[in-house]
Amino acid sequence: MIMVQAYKNYWRKYLDFSGRACLADFWLVVFDNILLTVVVLLLTGGSIWGLA
Predict the structure, then answer these.
(1) pTM here?
(2) How do residues 8-40 score in pLDDT, each as one tens digit?
(3) Do the Cβ atoms of 28 and 2 come closer than 8 Å?
(4) Cβ burial, residue 25 (10 Å; 0-12/13-18/19+)
């Protein structure tokens, strides 16, 4: 649940420049993006053009 919450916080606060994010929040979002990319690639047969 922590990864989902970090991803939601990222999209809620991505234009808020009044503070700093902790290192864990940054890397959890990076890891989530990698996981989503792998899932999309698997669903499209390894081709990014499969979505078009």
Answers:
(1) 0.65
(2) 888 888 888 887 777 887 888 899 889 988 888
(3) yes
(4) middle
